[in-house]
């Protein structure tokens, strides 16, 4: 008889007799990713309690019916199933919990290049697996869990997240509201470029905020401000005040409504683009091997269509862009990647603009993203913090969180979309891992690709002789030096590099907020961060339009929109 080691027997015993979770799947849940969540708090559903920080509920993830894995009527979560924050079901302390399962339904996309990845399509909710219409889920169940018990918790995914269409969260419904339609217009735009890439019809949503006096001045043509940011069913919070009739007297929405509709602000068109995709709620507005040609779709297709329909001036000198966080990176990248197409960028708390500071990871010099090792010890790499320095999450745990939500970079979360945007596409149709999501080992070959294509600081340094003259007077960046995600580190690197430039010497403006968290937008020091954030667009529009007028070419229209 073959001898079996004691450790092997213990492992087999643990796997065979530990408590399990058995999930019954409906017919609609045959291709996708199952997520099972444990929570101690029953005040909200467990599916709403998972996040990247240490207070998160406990989750486990299983692929079903994709990438060679067969479909099934039931799926079992056991000791071998990867979890976050705890890595195994057997690590959960005995006690009472609320348990829930959700199945994120995937579809197979047949790309123009012949590859056919399984991905979660956006269903109008902005890529939220726990709120995606059509996703089956179970009602929360209160159970007593004991990892050593020889029993099975059974869940049945007999509920379905309802459709958004026809509800108050549907952009088409918002656009038909009489309080909305005078100033806010909605366009659902089919992109030929994106449709060709994805092998199916793909659409962009465009919210267009029209200036006061638009109808009364039919001969006026207007500058365009592209406001960057995450998916929103309407527009960014400041703009929804217009749709809602101005908000409550005294709040920032009401003040913006009054400033916009009474003509106290410069007359311009503000465009907010919805570009949720199979990897995230936002595309990062650049052309990408995995996400597709969103930069071309927005700049070459959508913006000309918006300007043609709503009397935009339609020239680079009369366009500006701004945004914070994801939108901050997009605003800066848009100006750098389309230098002749825009006449100014205002980027706040931008995502990493230098991959020496990929949040808190140095992709170029660190061998591992999760730990820094000394001769006799190691420390985990922090990812999220409070302004006082208290750590809220580590990079290793954040990657584990996303791996539970989706393998192959399909988490529809932050690290996943960066990889999808920045990486080359692998032979299986998925993004090539820039680092191993389990061990943290960094793939230096992929980093080289990232540097060449998307490291904004590296690109500016490499191409300064041609880019420098085109971005003069156009770059304005703000960040808090206590940024929650360490994004200030990359901004400082960009600032330091631009200070070394010559022919021309960069005149980019940087503003830092001592001790300020994410998302600091700059502004007068006599006001708080919250006050400056509340009137950010009011602060920027006069700066943008004045710069446009001062730099407009001879004979340009700088008068029809000034009334």
From TrEMBL:
PANTHER family: ENTEROCHELIN ESTERASE-RELATED, IRON(III) ENTEROBACTIN ESTERASE. This is Esterase. InterPro entries: AB_hydrolase_fold, Mycobacterial_A85_antigen. Keywords: Signal. The keyword Signal applies. It comes from Terriglobus roseus. Residues 1-18 form the signal peptide. The keyword Ribonucleoprotein does not apply.
